[in-house]
Amino acid sequence: MRVFVPFSHRLFKQGVVPFAVMALSLGGPAYGVGQEQDESQKNHRVHHHGKHHAGAQAHAKEVKAAKAKAGAGKGSPHAAKHGGGAARNRALERKAAAAAAAASAAKAAHPAPPAVPDNVGTETKLPLPRFASMRADRVYMRRGPGERYPIDWVYHRRGYPVKIEREFGVWRLVEDSDGQKGWVHQVTLHSSRSFLIPGSSSYDGDASKVSITGHADSRIVTYRSAGEVARGQNRDVPLMSSEKPDQKIVALLEPGTVGTIKACPQGLSWCHVTVRGYDGWVERRLLWGLLPDEIIQPD
């Protein structure tokens, strides 16, 4: 018995229909689902992209607004740069003005010391010229103010008077009774006052001392009769008992004699001196070691 099978059934039985059905089941519905998913993802991306873009635009607007606000306060970078330089210049000017004012105030509070006059020592501020005496029995006179300068003279007489003319550090330019000038160290000088009886010496003692210095040692006190003194037979200087008219001769001082000045009172032409234990008065015009009209008060 034969049963009529429709064409579709035959195709199904032969495998044609299932393939078509599978194609329809896989093709039709699969295409629809994929398209739907693509649309959904596209919409999702558009949504997020739009949201992100909107956020970026909002952030950009905020940044721009902040820059605008900052620019309104500070100006452009170029202006800010020049403005900062001007501010620094003004600050430097203010500092310079303050420093100048402080210097002026300090100068007014502590004025510069006045210039030292020529008649005052630059080191001691004592008057120049002035007299001093040698402190030691051996004093070197040099050609310049320093030990590197050669020695010209050696003095062998403590208390020998010299006239100080200049000062340079610890050195003093001095002049002796013969007009010889040179530099001696300050430690070899003393402020005590002494005198010298000028003139050539007849001393015949230790010739080595005289030949070395050529500038006199102390001369011994000698004695002469009143008649010899009155006749002026020598150049000895009389040492008198007082400055009064009734004075007497105590001794005669040979040229080159060195002694100590005790006083040269104002208004008198006599000076009180001592020489090797002898005490008396000598006319000041006969002494070397005094400035004109100089007054020496007694100790």
Descriptive key words:
299 residues, alpha+beta, SH3 type barrels, five-stranded antiparallel beta sheet, four-stranded antiparallel beta sheet, 5 helices, elongated, DUF1058, SH3 domain-containing protein
Mean pLDDT: 73
CATH topology value of the domain at 216-286:
SH3 type barrels
Helicity range: 25-40%
Strand order of the largest sheet: 6-5-4-1-7
What proportion of the residues form beta strands (DSSP E)?
Answer: 15-25%
Distance between the termini: 183 Å
Shape: elongated
> Which structural category fits the helices and strands?
alpha+beta
CATH-defined superfamily of the domain at 216-286: SH3 Domains
Helices, by number, come to: 5
* Assembly category: single chain
Give the C-alpha Rg. Answer: 61 Å
Query: What are the secondary-structure elements, in order, as H or E?
Result: HHHEEEEEEEEHEHEEEEE
- SS elements, strand count: 14
Spans of at least 5 consecutive residues whose pLDDT stays below 50 are 1-5, 7-40, 46-53, 203-224
Biased composition (Low complexity): 68-78, 97-110
Biased composition (Basic residues): 43-54
Region (Disordered): 33-123
Protein name: SH3 domain-containing protein
